[in-house]
Write a structure and sequence with these properties.
By secondary structure, the protein is α+β, with helices and mostly antiparallel strands. It folds into two domains: 86 residues, Glutaredoxin (3-Layer(aba) Sandwich); 107 residues, Glutathione S-transferase Yfyf (Class Pi), Chain A, domain 2. Helix content is 55%, strand content 8%. The protein contains nine helices and four strands. Strands 2-1-3-4 form a four-stranded mixed β-sheet, with helices on one face. A hairpin with a 5-residue loop joins strand 3 and strand 4. Helix 1 packs across helix 9, helix 6 crosses helix 8 and helix 7 crosses helix 8. The longest helix is centred in the middle third of the chain and has 25 residues. The protein is globular and about 50 Å long. The model has no long low-confidence stretch (mean pLDDT 96). The structure holds glutathione.
Amino acid sequence: MTRYKLYGRPNSGSLAVQVALEEIGAPYAQILVSKDPADVAAYRRVNPTGRVPALELPDGTLIFESAAILIHLALVHPDAGLAPAPATTAHARFLQWMVFLSANVYESVLRMYYADRYSARGEADAEAIREQATTAYLAQLELVSQGLAPYVLGAQYSIADVYLYMLAAWYPGGKALLYERLPALGVHAEVLSRRAALVKAERDHPSE
Ligand SMILES: N[C@@H](CCC(=O)N[C@@H](CS)C(=O)NCC(=O)O)C(=O)O
């Protein structure tokens, strides 16, 4: 099998992509992009967004946007069981949650962690933006958690579960507190934590 190249950073969206690659059993190389401005500037020549994750496909094409990467990997490696069969109703629900997690939950996370970027007044408005983003993030996670049984798609595991697990783990108050507020997410995390691919990716996620 040909090799993927995963651009990432510890505690970033590259975790979910690494889990997908582990589940697939595909060989991949990890390239660490530090937050050092020189490193980010060099990375922008590969990925103009400057964001992680990004995945270089075996044919050399670079793909960014975590949800697009995960959906693509699920389609290219159907035997890995990362998503329901394409063009089914179950797959439509998979797409719905992947886009919801990416466009809403991930976006709320970015507003919480990079609040100063969301106002022309920068840091002056950051606290209010952070507060509003946290409220939105909790409401969005509550909405997803209401349907967990035990997975996002019911009885069928998919990479949407890993995506949710990763985004929930970024709650600024810490995972334990979030699982107290939304117990269904705690149960979901417990189920996921038994998967070897997740255990390995979390262990392997190298520190800067
Ligand atoms: N929509 C993008 C968001 C990626 C993103 O913002 N990643 C964060 C890390 S989790 C990042 O690179 N932040 C650095 C920055 O914005 O300067 C995706 O889903 O891949």
